[in-house]
UniProtKB/TrEMBL annotation:
Its EC number is 3.4.24.-. In the C-terminal section; belongs to the peptidase M41 family. It comes from Paenibacillus allorhizosphaerae. The keyword Membrane applies. This is ATP-dependent zinc metalloprotease FtsH. It comes from the Bacteria.
Length: 498
């Protein structure tokens, strides 16, 4: 409200009250409603002002310094990002060569791989103002609020860059799929207005040459983003921040081990080999949990067994105090032995331990020896994986005549692997497009593959029934059966059979 408007209201309200009193009107209800309405409007204005102003103002402070050297396991992604960021640093060169400046960089990949860390390192690398926000912060039920927050975010970034005498600012939006999802062309939604405002800011319609604003965003659901965001001139670079390989995992573990006292015999390379498909966040958790185990044991340093226990905890969960009946323990033991025997027969030397210790939701588990990182699989290798997954349920059928609910996760793994075979053209259906094949055909082929592999697993395990009987008592009594002990029993069974 303008200054003159306030003066008019101050003068008019007392005159109106005096007039109503003069004509005999009861003004108490009117005053009551006026106070309620005024309070509501004041709180709404204060709330919106805090959300679109104070939040971004507090975010305008420079983040704690983080360099690319402090981010492990992403050498390729870091090289790509640094090359893209050079457009901000070498601005005179790109002007001389007539190169169009980058507008945006999209970081994609699984959760926990370091996308936010790379955005912070980018701000340090370019000596830019760094402002961060989450996609959910722009979602509101009130029309226009999300778009207003986008405008305020970019405005605050430019203002802070000018204030700190910097030539560039980086605006980072995490989980951008929340506001950048595909528009269906239907009812006009608040999300659409927010996305339209973001597209406008990226087009540079309301921006100046300096300070330059680069937008970075992160998502693990790139396929959900609107095509208008992904086109050249908006997000010009799409950088995949993938799960680290073994070399990257060693680097990450060493980074998180810097402030932790490791025992001389602690071998991080072996831990890196065991943690195939672990993200950077999971590897950080492994080192943290290992330190917690060392503290529980009142140990002066972190030993190899603490690291191994931490891998199990991150992968399967903490040990639980569930007390099961004798019959249930025997069923779980036979189930896990089914997995172990199937694994050892199709991949000799792969079993490291068979355990009956409950962890998380699992009542028992088989720990496998670390394998080489592998990204391509043949049809035979996938079938072996399916047979290992089915081994537990087949073992229950052999000794109890039926299955239990403990096979649910095993079946999910088997179905996912069958789906991979179908999508890779490794089934009798050949190379297919799922949209061009009926659901009945897919279900028929799925059932055929699983039935065939179930029969093969049953035939294989029946030949080693003695191993079940010899291992069962040891496993129930000791709760743990080592890989070497298990292989000796398996070898004795083979000798007797021959």
């Amino acid at each position: 409200m303008s200054k003159y408007g306030k003066e008019i209201m101050i003068g008019a309200v007392p005159v109106l009250i005096a007039f109503l009193l003069f004509i005999g009107v009861n003004i108490i209800p009117v005053l009551f409603m006026t106070v309620i309405l005024g309070t509501f409007l004041f709180m709404t204005r204060a709330r919106n002002g805090m959300s679109v102003g104070s939040d971004h103002k507090s975010r305008s402070r420079a983040p704690s310094y983080l360099t690319f050297d402090e981010i492990g396991g992403q050498d390729r992604a870091k090289r790509e990002l640094q090359e893209a960021l050079d457009f901000l640093i070498r601005y005179e060169d790109i002007q001389r060569l007539g190169i169009r400046p980058l507008k945006g960089i999209l970081l994609t990949g699984p959760p926990g791989t370091g996308k936010t860390l790379m955005a912070k390192a980018a701000a340090h690398y370019t000596n830019s103002i760094f402002m961060a926000a989450s996609g959910s912060e722009f979602v509101e039920m009130y029309v226009g609020v999300g778009a207003s927050r986008i405008r305020d975010l970019f405005k605050a970034a430019r203002a802070q860059a000018v204030k700190e005498n910097k030539n560039s600012a980086i605006v980072f939006i995490d989980e951008i799929d929340v506001i950048g999802g595909k528009r269906d062309g239907g009812q006009h939604r608040e999300y659409d207005q927010t996305l339209n405002q973001l597209l406008t800011e990226m087009d540079g319609i309301h921006t100046t040459e300096t300070p330059r604003v680069l937008i970075m965003a992160a998502t693990n659901r790139k396929e959900m983003l609107d095509p208008a965001l992904l086109r050249p001139g908006r997000f010009d670079r799409h950088i995949e921040v993938d799960l680290p390989d073994k070399k990257g995992r060693v680097h990450i573990l060493n980074i998180h081990a810097k402030n932790k006292p490791l025992a001389p015999e602690a071998n991080l390379e072996s831990i890196a080999q065991e943690t195939f498909h672990f993200s950077g966040a999971q590897l950080e958790s492994v080192m943290n949990e290992a330190a917690i185990y060392a503290m529980r044991d009142e140990s002066e340093n972190i030993q190899q067994r603490h690291l191994s226990l931490a891998v199990d905890k991150v992968m399967l969960g903490e040990k639980t105090d569930r007390e099961s009946t004798k019959e249930e323990r025997e069923r779980v033991a036979l189930h896990e032995l089914g997995h172990a025997i199937a694994a050892e027969l199709v991949r000799p030397g792969s079993v490291s331990q068979v355990s009956l210790s409950p962890r998380g939701k699992a009542l028992g588990f088989v720990r496998h020896n670390p394998q080489q990182d592998q990204y391509l699989y043949t049809k035979e290798q996938i079938e072996h994986q399916i047979m290992i997954a089915l081994g537990g349920a087949v073992a229950e059928e052999m000794f109890y005549g039926g299955r239990s609910t403990g096979s649910r996760n095993d079946f999910e793994q088997a179905l996912n692997m069958v789906r991979t075979m179908m999508d890779s053209g490794l089934t009798k259906l050949g190379i297919i497009d799922r949209d061009m094949v009926t659901k009945e055909e897919l279900m028929k082929e799925n059932a055929s593959i699983l039935e065939e592999l179930t029969q093969a697993t049953r035939s294989m395990l029946e030949q080693h029934r003695e191993v079940f009987e010899q291992s069962l008592g040891i496993l129930i009594h000791e709760e743990v059966l080592s890989g070497e002990q298990f292989r000796q029993l398996l070898e004795q069974s083979r000798t007797v059979t021959i």
